Amino acid sequence: MMTNGDLENTRGPKPRGNNNNNGMYSGGYNGNSSASYYMGNSDSQWTSWLVPLIVVANVAMFIVVMFVNDCPNHNHLQRLSNQCVPRFLGRFSFQPLRENPLFGPSSQALEKLGGLEWNKVVHEHQRWRLITCIWLHAGVIHLLANMLSLVFIGIRLEQQFGFVRVGVIYLLSGIGGSILSSLFIQHSISVGASGALFGLLGAMLSELLTNWSIYSNKAAALFTLIFIVLINLAVGILPHVDNFAHIGGFISGFLLGFILLPRPQFGWFERRHLPANARLKSKYTVYQYVLWVIATILLVIGFVVGLVMLFKGENGNDHCSWCHYLSCVPTSRWSCDN
Questions:
Q1: Quick count: other Cβ atoms within 10 Å of Cβ 90?
Q2: Secondary structure percentages of the chain, helix, strand, coil, to 5
Q3: Which residues make Cβ contacts (< 8 Å) with residue 265, sequence separation at least 6?
Q4: Helix intervals (H) in 185-285
């Protein structure tokens, strides 16, 4: 997706790939009374404002990055200022396309403003980069693809479950993606919200599983969602796309969905209308509680182990000799070096 970064810097930024998913799973609610409850109390209860705010923040951050990048002045000594595109934008013009074909800034600008870079996180203790890299994008194409995906995925989730739960999933999934990316990619700069977006996809999948009984067309919904996830992960094996951020974000969001997105049983809401001596249903089913416990344990272990390994400076590739193929598969058309 991007070339090898700046002409004098071989560590090019790795945009977290474009999660071009244009919708939710297709499974609808069933036609019984519980469906009427969920339709009336999830889709219409919340007004989405967090997702639009995240979009605005990402766009604003990209403008700041381009302002700091200042292509004409920073490329003056290299005599490349006349190759900035389009030149009439002045300091907001993009790097030469042979350096950044996504219409964006240089690697140095992204690194300066918080791009994820292993050496700075581990040896210079700039751990805030695990969060700041989520708000940076490698170019206009990268930004548009991620923000469109966020709008399609995030708004409906926020309408159903509220801004708190969706915000927690988005942020923690982004951090989870940053941790896994840092463990396996240590010689490039990584930026993008795709880890957080894959977290929302993962949460959609676990939400479908934990609330399985309230959906009609279950099999179609499940296969559709899995197909969307696999297609997006497959895009991540192209060179210069940080698929480890996608995988880390997806796993984090998948576990968080079991924790934050279970829906109560319909019978629990009807307790007010039952006779005093009637047996009350628990708020959640047994399997929902089991999934909640398992997901919580796995999430905590995953984050603790990942952070400990990262801050100790370990290389994930030393513990998994084949894992590098998850982010890039070499072919006769491209190499995965650097």
A1: 12
A2: 60, 5, 35
A3: 281, 282, 283, 284, 285
A4: 194-210, 218-235, 243-260, 266-269
pTM value is 0.84
What is d(CA 9, CA 303) in angstroms, rounded to the nearest whole number?
32
Distances 48 to 40, 53, 58, 145, 249 between C-alpha atoms, Å: 16, 9, 17, 20, 22
Q: DSSP letters of 286-326?
A: HHHHHHHHHHHHHHHHHHHHHHHHHHTT--GGGT-TTGGGG
Contact at 8 Å (CB) between 84 and 94? yes
Look up residue 70 and give its two tokens.
């200042």
Residue 338's CB is within 10 A of a number of other CB atoms, namely 12
- Find tokens 């994008």 and name the residue: 137
Residue 140, judged by CB atoms within 10 A of its CB (0-12, 13-18, 19+), counts as: middle
For residue range 166-207, list pLDDT tens digits in order. 999 999 999 999 999 999 998 889 999 999 999 999 999 999
Rounded to an integer, what is the distance from CA 338 to the centroid of its chain? 23
Task: Please give the positions annotated as active site.
Answer: 194, 246
User: Cβ distance 197 to 150 under 8 Å?
Assistant: yes
Whole-number Cα distances in Å, 126 to 5, 105, 123, 318, 325:
22, 21, 8, 23, 28
239: preceding bond cis by omega (within 30 degrees): no
Q: Which residues are bridge partners to 13 per DSSP?
A: 189
Report whether 221 contacts 26 (CB < 8 A).
Answer: yes
pLDDT in tens, 305-322: 999 999 999 999 999 988
**How is 154-198 classified by DSSP, letter by letter?**
HHHHHHHH-HHHHHHHHHHHHHHHHHHHHHH--SSEEE-SHHHHH
